[in-house]
Amino acid sequence: MFGMGFTEIIVIVIIAILFLGPEKLPSAMVDIAKFFRNMKKTISEVKENLEEEVNMSEIKAEALAYKQELLDAQEDITKTTKLADINETSHKKEEPKNV
């Protein structure tokens, strides 16, 4: 736990008993446990938020790629339509000459 061995934990417990006394130690342990529980909860919430943000950025990148594909397709359709209009115009100009 936190890179501490058993002997370090025992030393911390002995210092806590000497500093707090046996009467206050149980309530202090409860407070410490609540603190670590809240920290764990906060860390997991932050991790979830980061994962959501990463997922949102991936979705945004995909949406931009689809948008670019649609713009390219629209440009192709516009070019094709303009070519068709040019061809129709050239055919209409030729028809009156034959009449």
UniProtKB/TrEMBL annotation:
Coiled coil (UniProt feature): 33-76
For this UniProt record, give its keywords in alphabetical order, as a comma-separated list. Answer: Cell membrane, Coiled coil, Membrane, Protein transport, Translocation, Transmembrane, Transmembrane helix, Transport
Q: Which GO terms describe its biological process?
A: protein transport by the Tat complex
Q: Which GO terms describe its molecular function?
A: protein transmembrane transporter activity
Its principal location?
A: membrane
Q: Which InterPro entries match?
A: TatA/B/E (IPR003369), TatB (IPR018448)
Q: What is this protein called?
A: Twin-arginine translocation protein TatB
Q: Name one GO cellular component term.
A: membrane
Where in or outside the cell is it found? Membrane
The membrane-topology field of this record reads: Single-pass membrane protein
